[in-house]
Design a protein that fits this description.
The chain is of the alpha+beta class and 364 residues long. It folds into two domains: 87 residues; 262 residues, Phosphatase 2c, domain 1 (4-Layer Sandwich), CATH 3.60.40.10. Helix content is 43%, strand content 20%. It is built from seven helices and 13 strands. The strands form three sheets. It has a six-stranded antiparallel sheet with strand order 1-2-11-10-7-8. The protein has a five-stranded antiparallel sheet with strand order 3-4-5-6-9, with helices on one face. Strands 12-13 form a two-stranded antiparallel sheet. The chain is elongated, with a radius of gyration of 28 Å.
Length: 364
C-alpha cells in the first residue's frame, strides 16, 4: 500500500509541475501579446504617424513570436527530461535495484518496457533473504503502461512483507492473490463510481498475473510455485530449461486450490545460475516474424568454468533482444539472474556432516 501511494504521489507531483509550467510558459506571452494589441488599438501614441511607435509595436510582436518559438522548441525537451526523472523515481520505488549479493548468491536484473518513453511496465521481480531461504518472485501483469503499474506496486508490496512473515511459500502466494483481488476491486470502484461504492461481482474476470515464486535453500535445493509463468533456465556448461511440470493457472481468473504446497523443481549447484524471465523475452519477434531465441543467447553466456556474471548475462540478453527487435518491443520483458557463489568447506573432525555452507551475511 505504501508503495502504491508513493508511486501515485510521484505522478501527481509531475502533473502539478507540468500544469504550473504550462501556465508560466504560455500565460506570460499571452499577457504580453494582449498588452501589445491594446497598445496598437487604444493608445493615442500608436495612432500617430512616425517610425518610433511602429518600431515599438513591431518589436513587441516579434519578441512574443520569438519567445513562443523558443518555448515550442525547448519546452517538450524539458518536459520529457522531467518525465524521465519522475519515471526513474517511480522505478526506484517499484523495481528497486537488487543487491549484488544475497546470502551467497550473485544477482542482477533488468527490464525493458514496451511503452515508449517508459522505464517501467507490467513486469515485476524481487529477491529477499529470509529465515526460510532466499525467496524470489517474478511476474507479468496483463498489459503494460500505467494501468499495469498499480498491480505491480500492489504485488511487490505484498511480497516484500509476506516473504518474511509466511513460513511456507504457499502462504506467500495466497497473500499475493489477496492483494491482487483487493487492488482490482479498488480500481474497479474508482473507474465506475456509479456503482454506488460497491465493488463489482468479479473484478478479476479480465485481469490476470503470471507469477513464479522460488525458495532457494542453503543445501542448493530450489522449491517453486508457478502460476502460469515461464519456467526458468539453468545456466552452467549449457543453458537448459527447467522441466518443473504443469503450472497453476495465473492469478486472477481462478482461485488457488485448497491443497497448495511448493515442490522441488531443481538444484542450483555452486557456480551455476538460474535465469528467470517473462514471456516478453521469448515472444519478441523481428521484422520477419521470427521469435527471439533466448536459449541460444544464454548458451553463449555458458562456459565450462561456469557462466558469466549475472550482470553480463543480463546485458548480453538485453543487447541481443534490442538488436533482434530493432528496439521495437511488443511486450515488456524482464530478466533476473541468480548465480550460486556459495563456498563450501570441509567439515572439521567431530563436526556433523561432510560439508557446511559458508555463505555471506544476509542483506535484509
Amino acid at each position: 500500500m505504501i508503495t502504491a501511494i508513493a508511486v501515485r504521489a510521484c505522478w501527481d507531483v509531475c502533473a502539478d509541475l507540468l500544469c504550473v509550467r504550462r501556465v508560466l510558459l504560455f500565460g506570460l506571452p499571452a499577457v504580453w501579446l494582449a498588452a501589445a494589441v491594446a497598445w496598437e488599438l487604444a493608445c493615442p501614441l500608436a495612432l500617430r504617424e512616425g517610425l518610433g511607435p511602429r518600431l515599438v509595436t513591431c518589436g513587441a510582436f516579434l519578441s512574443v513570436v520569438a519567445y513562443l518559438l523558443t518555448v515550442m522548441a525547448l519546452g517538450p525537451v524539458r518536459e520529457l527530461r522531467r518525465a524521465r526523472e519522475v519515471a526513474n523515481a517511480a522505478q526506484q520505488v517499484l523495481l528497486r535495484p537488487l543487491p549484488p549479493r544475497l546470502d551467497g548468491l550473485a544477482l542482477a536484473a533488468g527490464q525493458l518496457s514496451a511503452s515508449r518513453g517508459a522505464t517501467i511496465g507490467g513486469d515485476l521481480y524481487e529477491a529477499v533473504a529470509t529465515l526460510h531461504g532466499v525467496r524470489v518472485v517474478i511476474g507479468d501483469v496483463r498489459g503494460h503502461g500505467l494501468p499495469a503499474i498499480g498491480a505491480v506496486a500492489a504485488l511487490l508490496g505484498s511480497f516484500r512483507e509476506a516473504a518474511h512473515d509466511e513460513a511456507e511459500l504457499a502462504g506467500v502466494l495466497r497473500r499475493l492473490e489477496r492483494s491482487l483481488h483487493r487492488h482490482l476491486r479498488e480500481r474497479a470502484m474508482a473507474e465506475h463510481p456509479a456503482a454506488g461504492g460497491s465493488g463489482p461481482d468479479s473484478p478479476a474476470a479480465e485481469e490476470f498475473v503470471t507469477v513464479l515464486l522460488l525458495e532457494i535453500h542453503e543445501d542448493d535445493e530450489v522449491l517453486a510455485l508457478n502460476c502460469g509463468h515461464p519456467w526458468p533456465y539453468r545456466l552452467g556448461r549449457t543453458a537448459e530449461p527447467i522441466a518443473g511440470g504443469d503450472p497453476l493457472p495465473p492469478l486472477g481468473p481462478f482461485p488457488l486450490p485448497d491443497d497448495l504446497s511448493a515442490r522441488r523443481c531443481t538444484r542450483l549447484p555452486r557456480g551455476e545460475a538460474l535465469v528467470l524471465h517473462t514471456d516478453g523475452a521469448e515472444d519478441a519477434r523481428d521484422a520477419d516474424g521470427r521469435f527471439f531465441c533466448l536459449q541460444q543467447t544464454l548458451a553463449e553466456a555458458a562456459a565450462p568454468g561456469g557462466p558469466d556474471s549475472p550482470a553480463l548475462v543480463v546485458q548480453r540478453v538485453r543487447t541481443a533482444l534490442l538488436r533482434h527487435t530493432r528496439g521495437r518491443l511488443a511486450d515488456d520483458a524482464a530478466l533476473l539472474v541468480l548465480r550460486n557463489d556459495r563456498r563450501r568447506i570441509e567439515a572439521q573432525p567431530g563436526e556433523p556432516g561432510l560439508h557446511r555452507s559458508c555463505a555471506e551475511p544476509s542483506h535484509r
